């Protein structure tokens, strides 16, 4: 299930969630985050500091939200 959720965010299937992909999903859920808010969300869990969220980082993000 979590892998399916990750796939919903990872629109291009490259194994990384970008601010653009995160924004697309957030907007589809009725949210309207700014670029800086999206970057902050990614920075919170971006353990390797590459500016995107990979699957292990996504798991961390989901664990914090629950």
UniProtKB/TrEMBL annotation:
| Recorded GO MF terms | calcium ion binding
PROSITE patterns xref list: EF_HAND_1, EF_HAND_2
Q: Does the keyword DNA repair apply?
A: no
Q: Where is the EF-hand domain?
A: 1-32, 33-66
Q: Name one GO cellular component term.
A: myosin II complex
Q: Which domain of life is it from?
A: Eukaryota
SMART domains cross-referenced by the UniProt entry: EFh
List the InterPro entries. CALM/Myosin/TropC-like, EF-hand-dom_pair, EF_Hand_1_Ca_BS, EF_hand_dom
Keywords of the record, alphabetical order, are: Calcium, Repeat
The name this protein carries in UniProt is Calmodulin
């Amino acid at each position: 299930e979590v892998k399916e959720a990750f796939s919903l965010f990872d629109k291009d299937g490259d194994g990384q969630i970008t601010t653009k992909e995160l924004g697309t999903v957030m907007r589809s859920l009725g949210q309207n985050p700014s670029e800086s808010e999206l970057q902050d969300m990614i920075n919170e869990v971006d353990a390797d500091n590459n500016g995107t969220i990979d699957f292990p980082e996504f798991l961390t993000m989901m664990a914090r939200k629950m």
